[in-house]
Structure formats: C-alpha cells, structure tokens
Amino acid sequence: MFQPKTAFSGFSVNDLAKAKAFYIQALGLHVVEEGGGLRLHLPGGGTAFAYPKDNHQPATFTMLDFVVDDIDAAVEELKSRSVSFERYEGMVQDEKGIMRGISQKMGPDIAWFKDPAGNILAVLQAE
Fold first, then answer.
1. What is the tens place of the pLDDT at every residue in 69-110?
2. Per-residue pLDDT at 2 exceeds 80
3. Three-state secondary-structure class, residue 78
4. Domain with residues 9-125, CATH architecture
5. Which residues contact 49 (CB under 8 A, 6 or more apart)?
6. Up-side HSE of residue 106: CA atoms within 13 Å toward CB?
7. Run of H or E residues at 79
8. Model's pTM, two decimal places?
9. How does residue 5 score in pLDDT terms, banded at 50, 70 and 90?
10. What angle do CA 3, 10, 34 make, to 5 degrees?
11. Nearest Cα to 96, choosing from 107, 86, 81?
12. How far is residue 75's CA from residue 84's CA, in Å, rounded to a whole number?
C-alpha cells in the first residue's frame, strides 16, 4: 500500500550559491544546505529541494507559487529586493507586471519572476 510519510518538490539550479542567496535575501526563506543541495523551508510548512545540475535547463512553467494577501505590496517589496517581473505575450498584465484575474473572474492575480537559474516562480493573490 502506498503510504508516503511526506512529500516535497525538487528542481535544479546551475549555481547553488546564487540560488541560496536569492532564496534567502530576495524571498526571505529559511534555507538549509543538505545532501549536496538546498532545503527551502516554505511558508505553511512545506519544503522544496534545489540541487545543482551541470546541464541545468530552466523550467518553462511556473514551478513554485507564493500565495500572499496583498499582491501589490508583495510585488513592490520584491522589486525593492531587485526581483524583476516577467511579461508574457498574450497575457494582459498591468504596469507592475500583475495579471489581474480576480476582477475578471479568471483565477488569481498573479505576477511571474525568475530565480537566478531561470526557473519561473510566481507570487499570487487568490482573493
């Protein structure tokens, strides 16, 4: 019978030191070096594991979402920490880079950014 004790996400990065600095300094996460990689302690109690990979290819999809109460405040705070937000063709995003899904009844308000390895992350507000 399948009875896992826990679960976590894992993803590769091309520079462990840069990833560690970004996840600590820009995102304010608690990060622990573990088993040749980084254990990221996520809000709400979950974890993710970042590991080095020589031929790393960035994720071409959003691989980690951070849920916030106030997306405007979160975007401004992240920008103050030198995080740049992505713009995607075909997505209607405001001047801050936020796609406003709530007002259009089309999902959350969401803004995308990348970690130093090019993996796509997002900050979102569901209501």
1. 999 999 999 999 999 999 999 888 999 999 999 988 888 999
2. no
3. helix
4. Roll (3.10)
5. 8, 9, 10, 11, 34, 37, 38, 39, 40
6. 8
7. helix 71-80
8. 0.90
9. confident
10. 95
11. 86
12. 9
